[in-house]
């Protein structure tokens, strides 16, 4: 004789919210987080977009009013205006915010695993201001390139420990170092016509993120970056907005090429 009777019917699972709701609130939360983060990104650009060897900029270039995180608006807000003299502070109005929203959209598209996503998110947090700085003053300051690369190495190490294994991590370290050496070698061989050493340091993190997914992804990222930069250079030449001797900052292209290759590989 069975000791237990028929099992009582299981309670129906809690009705889950409509699929759209969770996604929408997630996107809204991400958007709020981005808008809270962008003053920090703008501050990094204002501080570091100075010629090599100069001290970091503390305030408005026009009137000297201090720009700081304690009073982020309007100088570090989307309108990017000095609160005293209304002169523009840092990158174009809305540009950093747009780039940050694009970065979040990209992370959503890339999706889990979370540990690898954390490495990309960390990298984006540093390279986003770096792109604006490179566009403004053709520099990629060490204060931003080193932490970007170090964090990628550590977070990918965490991803390796939590399941991905040592193989991808070793490939990432080798890929980052290899790509950095490639850029550094062009500086040594070609001088000013080669890439800068800042590009080489930026390539450490980019190469690691790309090589994590495989050697073909690393090659694709590099080719996409070079191709994009060549296309834009030709466009600028055709529009007579640049000359053959002009030096185009390469950092933004390396970042875009890396992100495009990561998206395509996913
Ligand atoms: Zn001012």
From TrEMBL:
This is Prepilin peptidase. Gene3D superfamilies: 1.20.120.1220. The lineage of its organism: Bacteria, Bacillati, Actinomycetota, Actinomycetes, Micromonosporales. Keywords: Membrane, Transmembrane, Transmembrane helix. It comes from the Bacteria. The keyword Translocase does not apply. The chain crosses the membrane at residues 26-45, 96-114, 144-163, 169-190, 202-232, 244-264. Belongs to the peptidase A24 family. It comes from Micromonospora musae. It holds the Pfam family Peptidase_A24. Residues 124-224 form the Prepilin type IV endopeptidase peptidase domain. Residues 1-16 have a biased composition (Pro residues). Residues 1-24 are annotated as: Disordered.
């Amino acid at each position: 004789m069975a000791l237990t009777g028929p099992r009582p019917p299981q309670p129906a699972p809690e009705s889950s919210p409509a699929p759209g709701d969770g996604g929408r609130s997630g996107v809204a939360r991400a958007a709020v987080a981005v808008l809270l983060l962008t003053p920090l990104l703008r501050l990094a650009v204002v501080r570091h977009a100075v010629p090599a060897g100069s001290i970091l900029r503390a305030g408005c270039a026009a009137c000297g009013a201090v720009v700081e995180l304690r009073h982020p608006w309007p100088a570090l807000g989307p309108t990017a205006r000095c609160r005293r003299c209304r002169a523009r502070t840092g990158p174009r109005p809305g540009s950093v915010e747009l780039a940050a929203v694009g970065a979040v959209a990209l992370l959503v598209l890339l999706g889990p695993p979370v540990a690898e996503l954390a490495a990309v998110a960390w990298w984006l947090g540093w390279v986003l201001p770096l792109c604006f700085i490179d566009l403004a003053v053709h520099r990629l300051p060490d204060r931003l390139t080193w932490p970007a690369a170090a964090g990628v190495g550590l977070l990918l190490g965490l991803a390796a420990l939590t399941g991905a294994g040592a193989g991808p991590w070793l490939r990432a370290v080798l890929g980052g170092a290899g790509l950095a050496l490639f850029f550094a070698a062009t500086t040594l061989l070609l001088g000013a016509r080669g890439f800068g050493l800042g590009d080489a340091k930026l390539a450490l993190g980019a190469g690691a993120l790309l090589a994590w997914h495989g050697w073909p992804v690393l090659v694709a990222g590099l080719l996409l970056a070079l191709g994009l930069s060549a296309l834009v250079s030709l466009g600028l030449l055709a529009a007579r907005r640049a000359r053959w001797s002009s030096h185009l900052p390469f950092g933004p292209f390396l970042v875009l090429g890396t992100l495009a290759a990561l998206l395509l590989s996913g």
